[in-house]
Amino acid sequence: MNQFILFLRKLINLAGSRIALNIYFWVAILLLKISDADDQQAYPNIFYYLLMVFFLGFFAAVSYINNLYLLPVFLFRKKYLKYFIFLLLLVSGISYLYTYLLIYLPRIFPALDTMVLSIVMDPVDNDLSPAGVAGNMMTYFFFMLVWTFFFTLLGIYYRNKKQLVDMQAVLNQHREVELTMLKNQIHPHFLFNTLNNLYALALKKSDDTPELILKLSAVLRYMIYEAATPLVSFSREKEVIQAYTDIELLRVQNTQQVHFSIVSDGEYTIPPLLWLPALENVFKHTRNAESPDIEFRLEIKDNKFYLWCRNKLYPNAITKDESGGFGIVNLRKRLDLLFPEKHQLFAEPSGDYFIFELEVSLL
After folding, report:
1. Which CATH number is 206-361's, of 3.40.50.1860, 3.40.50.300, 3.30.565.10, 2.60.40.10?
2. Do the beta carbons of residue 269 and residue 219 sit within 8 Å?
3. How far does Cα 144 stand from its chain's mean position?
4. Least confident of 84-88, 113-117, 211-215, 348-352
């Protein structure tokens, strides 16, 4: 069943490909000409059909020589004079052959109706004088020139479309590389902060040190492996937030003023670790507090990601090396790449508290 579905998808992609569209175009023109043919011709219909395909080949030759050679070699390289010279030579030569055959084929097949064969709707003039032949040739020359102009516009359109697609692919690739670099910066920053906690507990010879190491290992495993993907489940993120919070709260003696709320109205997939800078900032500001005042709310509802947290500022809670706000700067860059013009971030001191507020539209 899966193989059949895969086959259908390939068939649909092939049916909509550029080559297929070209085939549809030429077949449609051929069918239009065949529908004009008289069933009572002196020669079998198959003979007329073969000749129609033959004469249609002149127009196909002009079209593809122009689009596949003249456009990329001359016009797209801004060699405009050479392009127009070679285009005029091409159209003139094809027009001459086209006119010559339409005029002289009836001499070989007297009952042949060249009006039915001609892609141009006007019949050829039977005047075989130089002036008559020149008149016929000019008619087909201008018609083929207009025809070629139409295909030139198509060629320019497809080239511009391809350039836009290629440019978007490069931008997407650059965006993914930048996002990967930003996420890779999170890991050592988180590890650095956690090692500080581990060091403090080790100095106190705390019995919580083994538990901290175990939870740290679980969080790092998530960051390195699971968070490497563009999207993760919200339920899994919730588990990691809890583990990370447990790590930070191991050094806190009194958690009565620590309040956490993480809810959603359904199962969502979100970019990983959007919450990490907020929590890092919260615990950084309350590092020396025995009874920190922290409130953290994370909610996803109606495809809106909303994070709000508040922590009391304590004197000497932040060392000089930690005051740069690396995590928040990193988060702003990630949000600009992931959700351009679809997010709002506020992270500033307000009185005795530091407020962090983030709202993201996930759609």
Report:
1. 3.30.565.10
2. no
3. 38
4. 113-117
